[in-house]
Description:
Number of domains: 2
Low-confidence stretches: 542-558, 560-570
Mean pLDDT: 90
Distance between the termini: 68 Å
Strand content: 5-15%
Radius of gyration: 26 Å
Shape: globular
Number of strands: 9
Amino acid sequence: MFSKNKTGQLIYWSLFAIFVAGAILVRMHDFGKYPADINCDESMAAVEAMALVENGTDHYGTPFPVYFEAWGHGQMNVLYSYLLAGFIKLFGVSTFVVRLPMLVFSLIGIAALTWMAWLVFSKEATLFVLAFAAINPWQIITSRWALESNIFPHFLVIGTALLFFAVKKKKLWALCLSFLIFGFSLYGYGVAYSYIAIFMVSVFLLLFFSKTFRLKELLIATLCFFAVSWPIILMMAVNYFKLPTFSIAGITIQFYEKTTRMGDVLFFSDNFWRQLGINFQHLWDRVILQKMDLWWNQIPKTGTYYQISLPFLLIGLIGISRVFNDNRKVKTWNSGAVCIAILMISILTSLINGLIINEVNVARINHIYYPIIFVTAYGIYWVFTWKKLPGFLIPIAYGAYFAFFCYRYFYSEDRTFVNYTFDKGLEKSLQAAFRTPEKICVSMWEYRTDFQITEINTLYLLKLPYRYYSGQMSEEELITSGYIEPYRERFHYFDNLEAAYAEFGKNCTYVINVRERDFFDQTAFQVNSHDFFSVAIPDRGNDRWSGIAGKPRPYQIRNEYGWPTWSAHL
Length: 570
């Protein structure tokens, strides 16, 4: 396709650079500002990271847990928050920083996938893998918001790329590093428990029976895996056997009395066969048909890897099967065959996991999309190089689809729907309420029916420090910091506006859904709206100042992490 002379090489590397730049630019466009303002899972990851930085605990006060209690009834994975804690330490707290680790690892994920293609396919095929990954809708959307479970597929593809390299070059250090990454991935998402178990056992047997590595080398790599994964394995054992919480080596292995996570697994369902059928339907709808999922995972009409890609996915599966057969010898396996076998194991394991995990959505089946991108891109390359077809039509078609996706995601009315699910306007409304001296009542609006979601969003968007909301501040600290009252006295969360108003009346500033603004008497409250939210502030007449009892308005000085530390007077 590309000649080996200087002109051909110049064209190849110019295209390579264009695709790399395009991948970065589309993910950086409006980064940190869109989606706006924050998703509750992002808030929780950020609040936990802030608590780790400030106090060495989660926001409940548990020292260095291997799994967050988080929502109480529904726990949360720790890997993203521990990564985020380092970014917060360096750059402070902002939505840009909260999403930055996901952006960084998504770009590393593209690099890892491209490296995998380089190790197995030709340079030309590698270019197609890079290009398709750069414009992939799933990869773009997940790179722009900090759903903690979406770090899992990035770690998985990084580990797989290192595994490919280890197989290709027969390097034990790369094998050990790969197994370390797979061990860390267990902290990324609960679905990893079943996926990694099946995948690692299968890969171990493949590498042994194909004589790629000796048993001694595989056991050393396995020890590396357990060296980092033992705490999360202990946590699973503690909760399965209902053992008490304990600490070891400064970390907490916690038992969770309230959990909804076991109900997400097929084997714990009331009706196994009925649930299996439902799981198959969800897997088919999300992965094959690419039907619309939740707004923060996908937008309509484009799919997770474009609607026109299914034929190329099927062709790609045939293509890599041929590559496998070409590399497979009668008595021995070469590195190409082993790498393709690992890829096939990854796809098969993802499909099995999709049946084991109940009613998968895009996030729950996120580990399948890198293999899909890889195989589909190879299918596109295969068709493109088939001389009987006008291959130039394929990049034109995908270019049009990519432009359509960018328009819908960034500029059409879909942007409004995405922002709605990310509670746009809540931050400005909370900040306006926080500048008043009154108690603050925050509504559990519409689909935010759990007070913990409302509270976690409030803790993050106001950047409230652990010492404040945990009740550890003295009265003197409350005054000097400008917080006025203890957290539990000042902040209240409600799901019934009439009941809240009956309790607090005009002695409270209300943060509400914009649809509730007409509840308030405009002569008694100043009501300001910010996108999907409003803030209703009691009108104190000439005495009203956004401060306390006639004192000057406090101006909060924030420390290196962006948290309030003390107040000066304007």
